């Protein structure tokens, strides 16, 4: 848990940036939310969890037996995987079929439905043990990392173009297909555009009283 | 930085005014200005010039680049060059906007000048965006952004720095896996 992110804790403006360190970012709410992502897992051979049968909805056993398949949240799957108690397969958004689609044209994929923390969860998956064979495991991770970068770069172009051009328009059409991180970047572009246009149109010339003073009760007495 | 703050900085640039009143030297924090004599040109900061102009106590002599000929030339240069062309002032958009808004009667062909300024800034903005895309997509390690004005930097600052930050994080994670094998 060595999150060495430069982000400070801020509740007013969420900034779903990726964790900078190799671990999670302790203070990031988005990181916290993304860790609930379900990971298809399977209990390893020769391992069983006593009296935990009830966490798997489709079995009536009292114990969680070996080779049971179930979805576990990312945070749990990660530590169990590290102790080699479970093996995992990729969630749907990272499977081969999805990757083919992403390499064909990432700009048309709905990453909100397939995420909405596509990149953040993707980075976490890189820390799993994906295959018992070390070489295969590394190969798989390299391919996943490549997909993540390619997707981000190619989508970023569209996001930049649209975020610097939509003004006073309904952007939900655009943003409802974006991953949370992309949405954040989109909003940054929009903010800059709005400020620039407001400056150009001279909206800033009118100096307004701070809302704090105009709402203050003390002054309204007379 | 904000656009308002950049405009504030631009107002410190000096311009020449022709006053129609007499006044001794005035001492301001940034320096002494004046003395003011009718029909004797003198240099003052832009904000002071605008203030005097509003009281109809001076004419502003527009900077030598603020005319159709010079700007047409700059526009041509900007279109032909692949890199950003050096502009006559780091704050050319702001100065032109302020002068056109407050002293358009001192500028010859103000409408044409306004259109040219807009054309130049649009051409530069398009160039900047294209440069960013090339930089991100083609994995260039650096971009040459000489002669970029503070205004233009501000328009892409937050988006660009954050995007590159996130991209860097993605890449460093990926590289970790490449080196571990």
CATH topology of the largest domain in chain B: Methane Monooxygenase Hydroxylase, Chain G, domain 1
Q: Work out the strand percent of chain A.
A: 5-15%
Radius of gyration of chain A, in angstroms, nearest whole number = 23 Å
Structure class of chain A: mainly alpha
The best one-word shape of chain A is elongated
Count of DSSP strands of chain B: 5
Largest interface: A-B, 40 and 32 residues
How much helicity do the residues of chain A have?
Answer: 40-55%
Please report the distance between the alpha carbons of the first and last residues of chain B: 44 Å
Strand order in space, largest sheet of chain A: 2-1-3
Global mean pLDDT of chain A: 80
Helix count of chain A equals: 8
- In round numbers, the mean pLDDT of chain B is 89
**Tally of strands of chain A:** 3
Report the order of strands and helices of chain B.
HEEEEHEHHHH
Domain GINS subunit (chain B): 65-163
Family (chain B): Belongs to the GINS2/PSF2 family.
Pfam families (chain B): PSF2_N (PF25005), Sld5 (PF05916)
GO biological process, one term (chain B): DNA replication
Report on this model:
The complex is a heterodimer of chains A (222) and B (181). Chain A has helices spanning 29-34, 74-82, 96-104, 118-125, 134-163, 172-175, 180-200, 211-214; strands at 38-43, 69-73, 86-88. Chain A has 222 residues and is mainly α. Chain A has one domain (2-37, 91-221): Up-down Bundle (Methane Monooxygenase Hydroxylase, Chain G, domain 1), CATH 1.20.58. Chain A has a three-stranded antiparallel sheet with strand order 2-1-3, covered by helices on one side. In chain A, helix 4 (118-125) runs antiparallel to helix 5. The longest helix of chain A has 30 residues, at 134-163. Chain A is elongated, with a radius of gyration of 23 Å. The relative contact order of chain A is 0.10. Mean pLDDT of chain A is 80; it is low at 1-14. Chain B is mainly alpha-helical. Chain B has a three-stranded antiparallel sheet. In chain B, strands 2-3 form a two-stranded antiparallel ribbon. The longest helix of chain B is centred in the C-terminal third of the chain and has 31 residues, at 150-180. Chain B is built from six helices and five strands; from the N terminus they run αββββαβαααα. In chain B, helix 4 (92-102) packs antiparallel against helix 5 (110-137). Chain B has two domains: 1-61, Ribosomal Protein L9, domain 1; 63-181, Up-down Bundle (Methane Monooxygenase Hydroxylase, Chain G, domain 1). In chain B, a hairpin with a 2-residue loop joins strand 2 and strand 3. At the A-B interface, helix 5 and helix 7 of A face helix 1, helix 5 and helix 6 of B.
């Amino acid at each position: 848990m060595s999150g060495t992110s430069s982000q400070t804790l801020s509740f007013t403006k969420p900034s779903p940036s990726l964790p900078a360190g190799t671990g999670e970012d302790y203070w990031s709410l988005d990181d916290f939310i993304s860790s609930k992502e379900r990971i298809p897992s399977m209990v390893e051979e020769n391992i069983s969890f006593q009296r935990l049968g009830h966490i798997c909805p489709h079995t009536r056993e009292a114990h969680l037996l070996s080779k049971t398949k179930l979805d576990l949240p990312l945070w749990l799957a990660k530590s169990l995987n590290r102790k080699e108690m479970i093996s995992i397969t990729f969630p749907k958004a990272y499977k081969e079929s999805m990757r083919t689609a992403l390499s064909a044209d990432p700009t048309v994929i709905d990453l909100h439905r397939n995420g909405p923390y596509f990149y953040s969860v993707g980075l976490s998956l890189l820390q799993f043990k994906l295959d018992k064979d070390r070489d295969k495991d590394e190969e798989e991770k390299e391919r996943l990392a490549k997909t993540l970068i390619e997707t981000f770069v190619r989508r970023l172009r569209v996001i930049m173009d649209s975020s610097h051009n939509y003004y006073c328009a309904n952007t939900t059409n655009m943003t409802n297909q974006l991953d949370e991180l992309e949405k954040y970047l989109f909003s940054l572009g929009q903010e800059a555009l709005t400020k620039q246009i407001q400056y150009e149109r001279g909206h800033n010339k009118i100096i307004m009283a701070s809302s704090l003073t105009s709402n203050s009760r003390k002054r309204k007495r007379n | 930085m904000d656009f308002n703050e950049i405009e504030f900085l631009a107002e410190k640039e000096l311009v020449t005014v022709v006053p129609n009143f007499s006044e001794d030297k005035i001492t301001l924090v940034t320096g002494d200005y004046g003395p003011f004599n009718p029909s004797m040109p003198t240099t003052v900061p832009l904000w002071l010039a605008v203030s005097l102009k509003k009281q109809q106590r001076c004419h502003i002599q527009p900077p030598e680049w603020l005319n159709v000929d010079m700007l047409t030339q700059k526009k041509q240069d900007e279109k032909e060059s692949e890199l950003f062309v050096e502009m006559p002032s780091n704050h050319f958009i702001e100065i032109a906007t302020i002068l056109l808004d407050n002293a358009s009667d001192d500028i010859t062909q103000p409408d044409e000048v306004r259109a040219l300024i807009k054309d130049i800034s649009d051409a530069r903005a398009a160039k900047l965006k294209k440069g960013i895309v090339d930089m991100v997509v083609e994995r260039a390690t650096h971009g040459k952004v000489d002669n970029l004005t503070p205004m233009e930097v501000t328009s892409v600052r937050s988006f660009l720095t954050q995007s590159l930050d996130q991209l860097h994080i993605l890449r460093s994670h990926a590289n970790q896996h490449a080196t571990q094998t």
